[in-house]
Design brief:
- This protein has helices spanning about 5-15, 20-30, 45-55, 60-65, 90-95, 100-110, and strands at about 5, 30-35, 40-45, 70-75, 80-85.
- The protein is an alpha+beta fold.
- It has one domain (about 5-110).
- Helix 3 crosses helix 4 (about 60-65).
- The chain starts with a strand and ends with a helix.
Amino acid sequence: MHPSLTEHARARMQQRGITKDALELLLDFGRETHDHRGCTIVRFDKRARRQVLRTLGREAFRRFERYFNAYAIVAEDDAVVTVGHRFRSPSRAQWPSSSSRARQSTQRTGIHP
C-alpha cells in the first residue's frame, strides 16, 4: 500500500525522521480512532505491536521498534495529513490541568481554595 501524502505530511515525515516503510507499517497495523473532526488518528497500541511481532518476526519488530510511538492523522479521503511522535499518553494529554480542576471544584462547591 502506498499512502497518499499531503505536502505537509511529507515535510513532517522528513523533519521527524519517519520513513515511508514505517508509515506503511503504521497504516497496515495501527489502531484507528476518530478525532471527531472528520479525520482518523492511527497509532500503534499494544495489540498492534504484538501483531507486528507475530506477522513480521523479531528482526523486523526490532528494526521498526523506534517508530512505535508514531502516529498519523488521515483525512476522510485517505490522504495522510500529518505524522508525528507521541511523547505522552493521549489520555494523559486530555486530562484537565490542575488549575482547571480547581476552577471546576470552585464552581461545584462555591468554596475558593
